[in-house]
Amino acid sequence: VEQRRIASAFPLLKQGLKDENAEVRKASLKALGQNATFEDFPDLLVMLVDVKDGDGDAEEILVVLKSAGTRMPQADVADVIDKQFETASTELRIHLLELLKEIGGPKAMNIVEQAAWGDDARLRDKATAILGAWPPGKTEDLALLAATCKKIATEMKDARLKRRGLRSYIRLARQFNMPEEQRLQIAADAMALATQPEDKQLVLEAYGRWPSLKTLETVVPFMDDAPLQKKACEEAVKIGEKLPGKDAKVVEAMKKVIATTDNADLKGRAQRILDKQ
Question: What's the whole-model pTM score?
Fold first, then answer.
């Protein structure tokens, strides 16, 4: 039934959840995730609602919901979850936030963002963590996610969550595929918001992960910033090693690395780039 995804077997599988044999119950639960249609999704959600707070069965049911929900229209599934979210306990809402991350899409993201600005401290913590781990494959609207993370980084009162928002914003520039101008803008905004050297170094790493003449040009001035000097030289060399052909900007950058750093390895790598030029 699971392998052939026989939708009409949904009632039978629900009955299997009450079987005396644990293996039958487990197999029925797993099959539900593959067989459920959108019309069945509310019934699956009720199964999670009925689980008592702290009950280990919730994790198993959540796996089923993820398996089913990710096969269905994002916005429609998010709407069903949103209706349940309004009256759910904090514990259930935490599970639902995890589910929304797997579903993805703007509607799901909006629900998570609302939780990040709510009155419940546990939900704020969970929601901001989920936004910081939002899967690239579930991000059809990158601008929305970027705006959400930037708002948390600038307006959140809790300093810990505020920095989490900044790290989430930096992560976009480091890990997500996007047009270069958008990446440069996010990275520049993040650098302006960052107050800790560790966070600024993460921004410099973002430039190094996406080598181009523009990212190289952006990194070079940070060689004059003492706390960031070493990192800027490292990322400049990484970028230079990946750029093909001859270019005056690469030559200028590598000469500055050699004049700036005391690191023999970086000097040698920069010189080899110059030799190729």
Answer: 0.87
